[in-house]
Design brief:
By secondary structure, the chain is of the alpha/beta class. It folds into three domains: 174 residues, FAD/NAD(P)-binding domain (3-Layer(bba) Sandwich); 118 residues, FAD/NAD(P)-binding domain (3-Layer(bba) Sandwich), CATH 3.50.50; 119 residues, Enolase-like, domain 1. The protein is built from eleven helices and 23 strands. The strands form five sheets. Strands 1, 2, 3, 4, 5, 6, 7 and 18 form an eight-stranded mixed sheet that branches. Helix 2 packs antiparallel against helix 3.
C-alpha cells in the first residue's frame, strides 16, 4: 500500500511521561515518534528535548505509522501473500502448484513479534536518554510557545510538528456504531484481526485498498472492493490506473461507481453493507468484516495548531517553506502532517532537513520536492514517479510518451506476461525523462532506475546507452523503453508519436 506515513499523533493516551529532567521548559519539543524521532542524534546531546506521542493503533505503539500499522507490517504481509498467489502465475507456465493453507496467526506472530519489539525497544531507548523526556498524553497548543500535554503545560524554544495522519472516515449510518466496532476496520486494525474473514469488503480505490485486497484475497478471504469512481488509483497515471483496475478484477470482485450508504449488523453475526450506484440502484452485501480505506487526513487540526499561529491549507495540511518552516517562527513541520504525498521516504527526507536546519540555522538546506516515487505492492506491483499525462495536459506541457510491454524482451517471454509494461514520458526539447509508470513484476526495482535518471537529469539515450544492461535481465525492458522514448522524442510531431507501443530492440 503504499501508503505509507510519517509518525505517531501525540494526541491522546494515558497520562504518563518519562525520561530526563522534570523541567516544564525544553530547547526542543517534537510531536510524533515516527520520522520526527529520527531528528534527535548526537548533535542534540546538549539540548533538552521533549518527545510527545500517544502511539498508533489500539496498542498505542511508539515509533509511528510506518513501523506499526503501515509500510512495514503490510509489506511483511505482502511477501507471504505473493507466495500464496503464485499457483495462478505458475499455471500459465505449465507448473501445477497446490494452494496450501495459510497460517494467518503464525504470519501475524512473525510480523508483529518483530515490529512490536522494535517499538518497545525504541521507546525504552528514548526514555534512557538523559536529555530526552517522553510524554504520552493528549497534546494541543495553547499558543506558539505553550503546549498542553495532559494536565501539564510545557514550553519550548522550538517545536517540530511530526504528528502524522489518521485514516479518513465517512459519514455513513452505522459506520461508527460502537456495537459494530470489532467488525469495521482501517489499516490501523485490520492486520491484527484475530480471525481471517471469510468475506471482506474494502471500501476505497487507492493504494491501501489494492494492497489489502491482494493480501487478504491471497490468504483465502473472498474480497469485494467497492469504489465510487470509474477506475482505481485515480490520482495516478491513467494507463496505470486502468491496468490496476483490470488486474484487480482478475483477483477479486471489483464494484465500481458504487458508494457506501449504510452498515448494520447481520443476523448471522457479520454485517450487511449497503451501497448505491450512480444510477440510484441499491445493493446489499453480507460480509464478515469491512475495511474503510478512503485515504488519510493530517493531524494538525487535532493539535490545535491554529492557536499557535500555524497556517493550514484548504485540505488541512500544515503549510511549510522549502526549509520546513511553518508560518510561525520557531515551529517546523514534516511528514504526513504537512506533505500531501503521505509517504515515509518523504517524511524521512524532511526530517533530515529539519535536523540540519535546527543545528545549522545560518546554513540551512531545502528539501527536494521533485521526482518523488511511489511503490505499490499489489499483485502485480506498480511504481510511479513524476507527473501523470493528465496533469501535463492540464498544465499545457508538451511531452511525448511511449508504452513498452514486458513482452518485448526475452525475460518477458519467459514470464509469459502480456499485461505488464513500462510507460515513460519525456520532454522532446531536452531528451530527458519527465515521468515513469510501471506495472508488473519487480516494478518498484525497475521504476527506481527511472527515478535515478530523472533525479540526476540523465537523458533517455544516455541512460540507455551509457551503461551495460545484463542480457537477458528483466531490466532490459527499461533499456528498450528509454530507446523507444528517445526515438519518439526525435520524431516528435509524427501522428503516432503519442502512446507508441514499441516492439523492442531484440
Amino acid at each position: 500500500m503504499a501508503t505509507e506515513s510519517s509518525g505517531g499523533t501525540g494526541l491522546s493516551g494515558a497520562g504518563r511521561h518519562s525520561g530526563g529532567g522534570a523541567s516544564d521548559h525544553f530547547d526542543l519539543c517534537i510531536i510524533g515518534s515516527g520520522s520526527g524521532n529520527t531528528i534527535v542524534n548526537h548533535e542534540f546531546n546538549d539540548w533538552s528535548v521533549a518527545i510527545v506521542d500517544q502511539g498508533v493503533g489500539e496498542g498505542e505503539w511508539f515509533g509511528g505509522t510506518c513501523l506499526n500499522v503501515g509500510c512495514i507490517p503490510t509489506k511483511m504481509m505482502v511477501v507471504p501473500a505473493d507466495f500464496a498467489a503464485s499457483p495462478d502465475r505458475a499455471a500459465r507456465l505449465g507448473v501445477e502448484l497446490s494452494r496450501g493453507a495459510v497460517d494467518f496467526a503464525g504470519i501475524q506472530q512473525r510480523v508483529f513479534g518483530r515490529t512490536n519489539a522494535i517499538s518497545t525497544d525504541g521507546l525504552a531507548y528514548r526514555e534512557s536518554n538523559e536529555n530526552v523526556t517522553v510524554f504520552r498524553e493528549a497534546a494541543a497548543f495553547i499558543d506558539a510557545k505553550h503546549l498542553q500535554v495532559g494536565d501539564r503545560v510545557i514550553t519550548a524554544d522550538q517545536f517540530v510538528l511530526a504528528a502524522g495522519s489518521r485514516p479518513r472516515t465517512l459519514d455513513v449510518p452505522g459506520l461508527n456504531d460502537p456495537d459494530l466496532a470489532g467488525l469495521i476496520h482501517t489499516n490501523d486494525t485490520l492486520l491484527r484481526i484475530k480471525t481471517l474473514p471469510k468475506h471482506l469488503m474494502i471500501v476505497g480505490g487507492g493504494v491501501e485498498a489494492l494492497e489489502f485486497g491482494h493480501i487478504f484475497s491471497a490468504f483465502g478471504s473472498k474480497v469485494t472492493l467497492v469504489h465510487h469512481g470509474a477506475r482505481l488509483l485515480r490520482k495516478l497515471d491513467r494507463d496505470l490506473g486502468e491496468a490496476a483496475t483490470k488486474l484487480a478484477a482478475e483477483r477479486f470482485s471489483v464494484r465500481l461507481n458504487q458508494s457506501l450508504s449504510n452498515v448494520e449488523a447481520s443476523e448471522t453475526g457479520g454485517l450487511i453493507v449497503s451501497t448505491s450506484d450512480s444510477d440510484g440502484i441499491d445493493y446489499d452485501y453480507a460480509v464478515d468484516a469491512l475495511m474503510v480505506a478512503v485515504g488519510r487526513e493530517p493531524n494538525g487540526d487535532l493539535l490545535e495548531v491554529g492557536r499557535a499561529g500555524v497556517t493550514l491549507d484548504d485540505q488541512g495540511f500544515v503549510v511549510v517553506d522549502d526549509q520546513q518552516r511553518t508560518s510561525q517562527p520557531g515551529i517546523w513541520a514534516l511528514g504526513d502532517v504537512t506533505s500531501h504525498h503521505l509517504l515515509k521516504h518523504v517524511a524521512n527526507a524532511e526530517a533530515r532537513t529539519v535536523q540540519h536546519n535546527l543545528v545549522h540555522p545560518d546554513a540551512m538546506i531545502a528539501t527536494r520536492r521533485d521526482a518523488v516515487p511511489q511503490a505499490i505492492f499489489s499483485d502485480p506491483p506498480m511504481y510511479s514517479v513524476g507527473p501523470t499525462t493528465d496533469e501535463l495536459d492540464a498544465a499545457g506541457t508538451h511531452y511525448v510518451s511511449i508504452i513498452q510491454p514486458y513482452s518485448t524482451v526475452a525475460y518477458g517471454w519467459a514470464m509469459v506476461d502480456d499485461d505488464s509494461f513500462v510507460k515513460l514520458v519525456g520532454d522532446p526539447a531536452t531528451g530527458k525523462l519527465l515521468a515513469a509508470h510501471v506495472v508488473g513484476p519487480e516494478a518498484p526495482e525497475l521504476g527506481q532506475l527511472c527515478t535515478t535518471a530523472i533525479s540526476f537529469g540523465i537523458s533517455a539515450i544516455e541512460m540507455a546507452r551509457g551503461q551495460y544492461w545484463a542480457h537477458p535481465e528483466l531490466a532490459e525492458v527499461v533499456e528498450n523503453a528509454l530507446i523507444s522514448l528517445d526515438r519518439a522524442m526525435r520524431h516528435d510531431g509524427d501522428d503516432d508519436s503519442e502512446h507508441r507501443r514499441p516492439t523492442g530492440e531484440g
